[in-house]
Amino acid sequence: MGQMNLPTIDSAKQQARRLRQDLSAQGVEVGHGQALEMISRQHGFRDWNTMHAAIGNRPPGPPLAVGQTVNGRYLGKPFRGEVIGVRSLGEDGRFRTTIRFDDPVNVSQFESFEVLRRQVNATVGRDGRSIERVSDGTPHMQIDL
Length: 145
Fold this sequence. Notes:
The protein is of the alpha+beta class and about 140 residues long. The protein starts with 8 loop residues before the first helix and ends with a strand. The chain has three helices and five strands, in the order αααβββββ. A five-stranded antiparallel beta sheet has the order 4-3-2-1-5, with no helix packed on it.
């Protein structure tokens, strides 16, 4: 199994407990360590120590989830919206997100006309801030996490 599909350490331990209970109900007694080894092999690892290391060393996922409501600022303008897409871009902690605003955001810097955005894509770090900046140094996107 790929690392992104691995259970958490706590979930793997719960799987081992359930396996022990199921085997015990069939008259087969195994220790917790043996059950952990069995669970590890089911996930494609040679033993529990290898699986434990793989789970502990994987990068954390994005701090956002599809369907989550978020607040923040886009091009300096406040927004509230729903996360409709999120994907990790690698181990450096950046992720690509798509946010649909509850109310369109006017991103124009001029009072004479409006430039409304209803949905935007942004690449942000684990702090919710984009690397891209406007001329005054403010991040394009700032999501309150």
